[in-house]
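User: Please fill in residues for this 164-position structure.
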């Protein structure tokens, strides 16, 4: 235990001497375990997450995070409460939809980067194509070098065609 809250003990001055009458609880008090200071009550259990689409649902993304993102992007801290609420709800729906698409692409119980990248790169849906620059598919270093060499060759070829 920490030094700031020492343990309290029930202490008798000395053990009982034989032959003297003892109060009925004296031996219990002498042998009793030390008292522990009262502990803070446990925090209340978290309520279960709300069903998707419920109007009074607890938020998945903190409102302060949305405010910080908007302030960082626009430099403005002022925004109407209704506009902030709409952006907040849209952000949550977007994250839910991206997570659902990523679950479909994942091969296990967890969603990894590859699953998110596959959901973004899905040509059939094309729903998250605008994220392709932010979430590119993984590649090996050798494949990256080959791609860069091919780009350089194409640029050189274009430069030679322009000169001619």
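Assistant: Residues filled in for all 164 positions:
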């Amino acid at each position: 235990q920490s030094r700031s809250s020492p343990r309290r003990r029930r202490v008798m001055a000395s053990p009982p001497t034989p032959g003297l009458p003892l109060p009925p609880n004296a031996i219990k008090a002498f042998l009793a375990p030390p008292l522990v200071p009262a502990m803070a009550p446990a925090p209340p259990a978290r309520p279960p997450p709300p069903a998707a689409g419920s109007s009074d649902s607890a938020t998945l993304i903190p409102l302060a995070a949305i405010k910080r993102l908007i302030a960082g992007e626009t430099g403005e801290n002022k925004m109407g409460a209704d506009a902030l609420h709409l952006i907040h709800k849209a952000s949550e729906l977007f994250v839910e939809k991206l997570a659902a698409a990523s679950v479909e692409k994942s091969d296990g119980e967890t969603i990894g980067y590859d699953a998110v990248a596959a959901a973004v790169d899905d040509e059939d849906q094309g729903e998250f194509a605008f994220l392709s620059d932010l979430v590119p598919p993984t590649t090996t270093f050798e494949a990256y070098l080959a791609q860069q060499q091919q780009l350089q060759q194409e640029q050189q070829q274009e430069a030679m065609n322009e000169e001619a």
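For context: DSSP finds five helices and no strands in the chain.
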